[in-house]
Task: inverse folding
C-alpha cells in the first residue's frame, strides 16, 4: 500500500455511534478557491435538558436543520435528534465558520419551532442552551496535502 493510499484511507474513515464508516475522500471547493474537507461532530442541548424534541417536533426540527445547512453550503452526513439534545456530523465551509453556522442553526430553528409549536413557547422562552460542543473529525495526512499541491499544478 502506497503512502498516498494509506493517507486517503486514514482521512476517509470515520467512527460514529453507529459504527465505522468510509467517507468519500473528495475535497470541496468554494467560490473563494478554498479547498477543504472540514467535518465536525457538533452537539447541543435543550435548555435545562428538558425532553422537548419528540414526535412531530423532532421531525420538523430535522427538516429545519437540513434546510438551514443546505442554504449555508454545509452538508449534514449524520443527524441524531434525542428528546433533550441534537448531535450531528456536518461538513462546513471554513470561510463561513462553525460558529456562524451554529448561530443560524440554533437561532432560526428555535424561533421556527416556537412559532410552529406554541406549546413550546409557553414552556420555555429559549429552546436551546447557550453552549454547544464542536470537535473535528478525521486526520489529514501529509499525503493529502501533497495530493492537493499536485492537483494545483494543472489548474
Result:
Amino acid at each position: 500500500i502506497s503512502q498516498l493510499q494509506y493517507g486517503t484511507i486514514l482521512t476517509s474513515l470515520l467512527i460514529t455511534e453507529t459504527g465505522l464508516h468510509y467517507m468519500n475522500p473528495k475535497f470541496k471547493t468554494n467560490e473563494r478557491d478554498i479547498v477543504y474537507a472540514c467535518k465536525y461532530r457538533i452537539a447541543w442541548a435543550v435548555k435545562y435538558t428538558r425532553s422537548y424534541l419528540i414526535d412531530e417536533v423532532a421531525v420538523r426540527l430535522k427538516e429545519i436543520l437540513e434546510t438551514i445547512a443546505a442554504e449555508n453550503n454545509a452538508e449534514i452526513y449524520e443527524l441524531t435528534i434525542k428528546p433533550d439534545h441534537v448531535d450531528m456530523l456536518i461538513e462546513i465551509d471554513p470561510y463561513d465558520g462553525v460558529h456562524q453556522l451554529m448561530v443560524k442553526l440554533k437561532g432560526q430553528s428555535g424561533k421556527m419551532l416556537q412559532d410552529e409549536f406554541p406549546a413550546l413557547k409557553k414552556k420555555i422562552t429559549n429552546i436551546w442552551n447557550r453552549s454547544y460542543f464542536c470537535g473535528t473529525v478525521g486526520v489529514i495526512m501529509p499525503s493529502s496535502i501533497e495530493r492537493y499541491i499536485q492537483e494545483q499544478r494543472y489548474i
